[in-house]
């Protein structure tokens, strides 16, 4: 994709942000929808955890194919196919009742979700100026909070009526996202350097697999996402079980929490540049340590006020660290193979997302419905993530565009 004018970039980024926000609305909404689903379908905590985890099997399977396709056929086609797949899966999720069918549909939804962050990152790599890439990437990732707000406001309102209505409404929003991509996404023109790129493609896979940072970031995001998806999956159930909150009260707290997800994401690039003076690793380590401490304090606190404060702290820090880690490939990896590289890195996120609800659901069941032990496990996972971050090799990409500390 050739570089676009700034005005065109604005509409392109808005289109991506809308689709990205909807994927996070889907990821967040299942945590609220699972409460009436359990009551209607008679699901146990382990079954609910397995249902939520099926999404991440599909997400993981399609990571590398989506990255490879983004490099080969272009991010627009991958984005359209991905969101179209999610639309169909979301619609059918609201139509069926059998647990096995719900699991299959969530798996298919995961297949579609896999292409969205990868194709979005490919767009950033192709169209945005080097100095603006981390900010634009953080801007796109900040829509995770917007998705959360939609999930716990619009989504929860529909769930209170009937959880199936929420998924019908979400399918309609995905249809709008597809239209926005058609109207606002620039056409992918034939690249005059296609022959040269073909030569680069012959070595692209080997370049990706020889880069140790790809696999270090893979591991870091795996352990970080055990925290991110663990608390997204079980916070509503914990507040219902431990503090007697109804869905309306839970939605209010989680709506505020979703705003902080965006704040954490948006503030990361500013804090790295202005406070930590470009020392990305030091910022990431500080954030993940605070996140781990907040998770454990959250688990052992009996006070509702303390638990809410700790929830807000680990939301801010975990999302800031996530954006920092996800932005590093733009500084450490060659643009020509950014799609394939991010596919492998993001696979760590999806494996962590798959393991988290399953492991935490098992721990909750094994300890007699005690959610606190699951959040202690998340805190430990955050500390492991910090250790992995220490291993990142901070060096500029071969083009010499970046200086990385």
Structure explained in plain terms:
The chain starts with 5 loop residues before the first helix and ends in a 16-residue tail after the last helix. The chain is mainly alpha-helical. The protein is globular, with a radius of gyration of 20 Å. 82% of the residues lie in helices and 0% in strands. Residues 397-405 have low confidence and may be disordered. The chain has one domain (6-183, 204-389): Growth Hormone, Chain: A (Up-down Bundle), CATH 1.20.1250.20. It comes from Oceanobacillus longus. It is found in: Cell membrane. It holds the Pfam family MFS_1. Its main location: membrane.
- CATH level 1 name: Mainly Alpha
Largest sheet: none
CATH topology: Growth Hormone, Chain: A
Gyration radius, rounded: 20 Å
Per CATH, the architecture is Up-down Bundle
Provide a compact summary of the structure:
This protein is mostly helical and 405 residues long.
Could you outline the blueprint of secondary structure elements for this entry?
Blueprint: H1 6-41, H2 45-61, H3 63-72, H4 75-93, H5 99-113, H6 115-127, H7 133-141, H8 143-161, H9 163-184, H10 194-210, H11 212-243, H12 247-274, H13 280-300, H14 304-327, H15 329-332, H16 338-366, H17 372-389
Name the features.
single chain, 405 residues, mainly alpha, Growth Hormone, Chain: A, 82% helix, disordered C terminus, transmembrane helix, Tet-R_TetA/multi-R_MdtG-like, transport, transmembrane
